[in-house]
């Protein structure tokens, strides 16, 4: 009954369990997913040389018609299921250095690991710290999380994230406080869930998955100071002068990227957007004690927004109402030479809230400390890829987002998935064309999603209240299918061949990106 095929096994040291995923050459056997449990990893060593054994993964290639093997390993017939193991593809031999362990760097590392590449991360932070406040992942990011560790990572993120199933999003007019639109929250799709939670808490889950479960090497306290490449390899220079090389280097070093400057020669020249955000995260103790605000923390999670002239105030309660978070976007006339993020003053917030629904001040006055975060514009980069196409940018270093897009972290994740697929499909010999293909797949989509940050902000800050009275949905937070229903992995697999061949044909100048040069448009 078994024909020629391949089985990839991932060994989980914590459970001493090997999970396998079958790939066979004949359709009648594709729904046979062999699954085996093993009490001791060492019991497999005598299968060598058919077995490639690392500390975390076993990759086994064998002929499924081997009767001795089927009698030794309890192969069972399972229903057809997508490959969900942490390492569903065989090793490609492609080595990658990633600079930065934010969501872009970690997702890129995890996805590259899943697609069979060998990755190492270098991060300047010496320890993992719970930094930041609220961060959003749309369904297009949730779809990526849902594929990790057979849904276990998504389950962990769920317990830390806001649950608005019953409450929805209540949008108020800033002065009267009336709810002008009650936007329902769509039911969670388990294959593409939405997550909103504390950046530090969600980041810790992803970080620990990469480091502890997948065994990805993450070097903390290692600031990257330089980059180099030639036609055959790329590398980094660390603060102490140590050098590391690989087939490619991925710069995931955030909004103030050094890679962007060193590799592509673009200086970080932020321009004032005219806006800034005050933001805060704090426990619910004082909110519960005040009868004016206790309702937000007593019956589960809540999400409310107050929309005013050139200002909007968003307030949410999270983890069954135990944590509170608000973000207030307002006009800001200060220059960009000042620090982009520094402590804010409550007195300044109160001035902006004069004449507003008094509940807004009742919430804000419970805040122990807040951050003042400048929203600056940056010109979009004409390319994210170095001259020899062995160094590339992902996430904020390539394309920062305005918070009103609620897509910055999710687009960073889509980058990671896309480069992982491109590298696997291209193979080690096609690495440079894969890097150029990655950019071509991602560039226009990212630009289009970036622009939604401005359109949503303008929709709220220049509200036509007569129009809202006639059509309350006109003030809703947009959840467009072309953004949220996107499956980055499926898309990359589908378009890869067509785009890749443009960079591999003999007639092409392979150093020339195919992208049109755009005029500068605003990003965060
Ligand atoms: C401390 C912090 C707090 C944040 N808080 C929020 C928030 O509350 N809400 C929100 O929506 N977004 C927040 N963001 C931004 C958000 O995480 C990103 O917009 C989004 O997730 C895309 O992530 P990224 O990985 O591209 O960039 P980042 O998340 O910025 O990650 C970049 C990483 O690269 C590292 N790095 C930078 N330079 C070097 C170097 N030379 N060598 C080695 N490592 C380097 C940084 O230490 C950082 O860990 C925060 C980012 C940071 C770093």
Summarize the structure.
The protein has about 525 residues and is an alpha+beta fold. The chain contains 15 helices and 23 strands.
What does this structure look like?
There is one protein chain. The protein has 524 residues and is an alpha+beta fold. The chain has 3 domains: 69 residues, no CATH class; 251 residues, FAD/NAD(P)-binding domain, CATH 3.50.50; 107 residues, D-Amino Acid Oxidase, Chain A, domain 2 (2-Layer Sandwich), CATH 3.30.9.30. Strands 10-9-18-19-20-17-22-21 form an 8-stranded mixed sheet, with helices on both faces. A 5-stranded antiparallel sheet has the order 3-2-1-5-4, with no helix packed on it. Strands 12-7-6-16-23 form a 5-stranded parallel sheet, sandwiched between helices. It is globular and about 65 Å long. Flavin-adenine dinucleotide binds next to helix 2, strand 8 and helix 11. It comes from Neurospora intermedia.
């Amino acid at each position: 009954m078994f024909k020629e095929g391949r089985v990839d096994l991932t060994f989980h040291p914590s459970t001493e369990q090997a999970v396998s995923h079958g790939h066979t050459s004949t359709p009648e056997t594709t729904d046979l997913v062999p699954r085996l449990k093993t009490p001791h990893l060492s019991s497999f060593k005598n299968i060598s040389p058919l077995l490639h054994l690392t500390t975390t993964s076993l990759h086994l290639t064998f002929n499924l018609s081997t009767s001795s093997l089927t009698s030794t390993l309890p192969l069972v017939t399972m229903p057809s299921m997508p490959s969900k193991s942490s390492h569903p593809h065989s090793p490609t031999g492609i080595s990658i250095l990633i600079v930065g362990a934010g969501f872009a760097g970690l997702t890129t590392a995890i996805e590259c690991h899943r697609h069979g590449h060998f990755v190492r991360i270098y991060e300047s932070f010496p320890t993992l710290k719970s930094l930041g406040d609220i961060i959003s992942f749309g369904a297009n990011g949730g779809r990526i999380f849902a594929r990790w560790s057979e849904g276990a990572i998504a389950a962990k993120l769920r317990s830390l994230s806001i649950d608005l199933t019953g409450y929805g999003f209540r949008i108020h007019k800033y002065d009267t406080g009336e709810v002008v639109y009650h936007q329902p929250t769509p039911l969670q799709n388990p294959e593409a869930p939405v997550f909103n939670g504390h950046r530090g808490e969600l980041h810790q889950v992803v970080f620990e998955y990469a480091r502890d479960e997948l065994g990805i090497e993450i070097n903390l306290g290692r600031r990257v100071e330089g980059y180099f490449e030639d036609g055959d390899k790329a590398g980094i220079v660390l603060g102490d002068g140590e050098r590391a090389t690989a087939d490619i280097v991925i710069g995931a070093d955030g909004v103030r990227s050094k890679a962007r400057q060193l590799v592509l020669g673009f200086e970080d020249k932020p321009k004032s957007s005219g806006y800034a955000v005050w933001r805060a995260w704090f426990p619910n103790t004082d909110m519960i004690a005040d009868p004016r605000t206790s309702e937000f923390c007593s019956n589960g999670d809540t999400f409310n927004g107050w929309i005013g002239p050139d200002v909007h105030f968003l307030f949410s309660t999270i983890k069954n109402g135990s944590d509170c978070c608000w973000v207030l976007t307002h006009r800001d006339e200060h220059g960009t030479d000042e620090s982009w993020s520094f402590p804010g003053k409550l007195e300044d917030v109160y001035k902006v809230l004069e004449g507003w629904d008094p509940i807004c001040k009742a919430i804000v006055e419970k805040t122990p400390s807040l951050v003042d975060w400048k929203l600056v514009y940056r010109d979009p980069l004409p390319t994210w890829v170095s001259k020899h196409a062995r160094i590339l940018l992902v996430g904020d270093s390539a394309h920062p987002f305005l918070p009103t897009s609620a897509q910055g972290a999710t687009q960073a994740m889509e980058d990671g998935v896309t480069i992982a697929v491109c590298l696997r499909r291209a193979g080690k010999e096609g690495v440079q064309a894969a890097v150029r293909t990655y950019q071509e797949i991602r560039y226009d989509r990212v630009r289009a999603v970036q622009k939604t940050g401005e359109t949503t902000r303008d929709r709220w800050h220049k509200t036509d209240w007569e129009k809202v009275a006639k059509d309350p949905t006109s003030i809703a937070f947009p959840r467009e299918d072309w953004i949220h229903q996107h499956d980055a992995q499926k898309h990359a697999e589908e378009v890869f061949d067509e785009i890749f061949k443009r960079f591999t044909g003999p007639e092409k100048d392979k150093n020339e990106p195919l992208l049109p040069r755009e005029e500068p448009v605003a990003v965060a």
